[in-house]
Description:
The chain is mainly beta. Helix content is 10%, strand content 44%.
Amino acid sequence: xxxxxxxxxxxxxxxxxxxxxxxxxxxxxxxxxxxxxxxxxxxxxxxxxxxxxxxxxxxxxxxxxxxxxxxxxxxxxxxxxxxxxxxxxxxxxxxxxxxxxxxxxxxxxxxxxxxxxxxxxxxxxxxxxxxxxxxxxxxxxxxxxxxxxxxxxxxxxxxxxxxxxxxxxxxxxxxxxxxxxxxxxxxxxxxxxxxxxxxxxxxxxxxxxxxxxxxxxxxxxx
Length: 222
């Protein structure tokens, strides 16, 4: 009887073990191991774009209004010769003769003419003196837009000159000379110096010959 019981008990244990084995979950399928994929290096953090703060505009200040450009004064005749206006005096030379000279330039006839009046006294080695006086009139030719001068000398000679304006003065070249040797030419130079001095010179050229110095003078305004 005990033998039957023991066998029956053993049979129950076997059946219970098989049932327990059937009730356990199935294990996952076995996979063939593969090489581990390389782990990517940690990427550097992307730079953070910093948007600059908008510049604060400087507060507008009401500045002074620009001054209007000064109007250019209209051109007037003889303004290029204005440096001559006034009374002058100084030394004079003519070859071996020396002496003095005075000159005065004045606008006349409501500014339509610039008149030059002058006197030169020259003394020779023997003591003899010679006085030369002159009157010159500058006129502006409106049609040809140029200056013309006419001079009368106490020697009886007269001449008409074309006037050329230069940065440092004026140059007069004769176009006609009366009561002198045929073909005689004259030229005069009025030159202002940096120290305020006025240099006057006169050159003569006999017919067919070159100019030669005749009279030079250095003047200062009185």
